[in-house]
Structure formats: structure tokens, C-alpha cells
């Protein structure tokens, strides 16, 4: 994006945030490692799989 367009997008996001129309929260994001993009919950096929959970405390 050129600088003018990038600045306009940033200005709109700041304005929406200040008006409490958008917010930043903690939630899961479905990430496609092949396409390098986020995908919709509707596009995800959930499957149960045995494994283990790794947390920052165990690293």
C-alpha cells in the first residue's frame, strides 16, 4: 500500500477504536500455514487428535 492509503486505514481503525466500535481481545485465530493467512471458523474442520499441550512454563 502507498503511504496515503496506509495512513487512511490507520486513521479509520484508530477512530473506530476510540468510538468503542472495535476492540482488541484475546481469542484463537485459525491460521493457514500454507496460504499464510487467517481463515474463517466456517472453513475449519475440527478433528480430535491425541497429543500434549505445551505452555510457556514448560518451555
UniProtKB/TrEMBL annotation:
Keywords: Aminoacyl-tRNA synthetase, ATP-binding, Ligase, Nucleotide-binding, Protein biosynthesis
One GO cellular component term noted in the UniProt record for this chain: cytosol
Domain of life, source organism: Bacteria
GO biological process, one term: valyl-tRNA aminoacylation
InterPro entries: aa-tRNA-synth_Ia (IPR002300), Rossmann-like_a/b/a_fold (IPR014729), Valyl-tRNA_ligase (IPR002303)
Annotated transmembrane regions: none
Enzyme Commission designation: 6.1.1.9
One Gene Ontology MF term: valine-tRNA ligase activity
Occurrences of domain Aminoacyl-tRNA synthetase class Ia (ranges): 1-55
Record-linked PANTHER family: VALINE--TRNA LIGASE, CHLOROPLASTIC_MITOCHONDRIAL 2, VALYL-TRNA SYNTHETASES
The protein's name in its UniProt record: valine--tRNA ligase
Organism for this UniProt entry: Vibrio maritimus
Native organism taxonomy: Bacteria, Pseudomonadati, Pseudomonadota, Gammaproteobacteria, Vibrionales
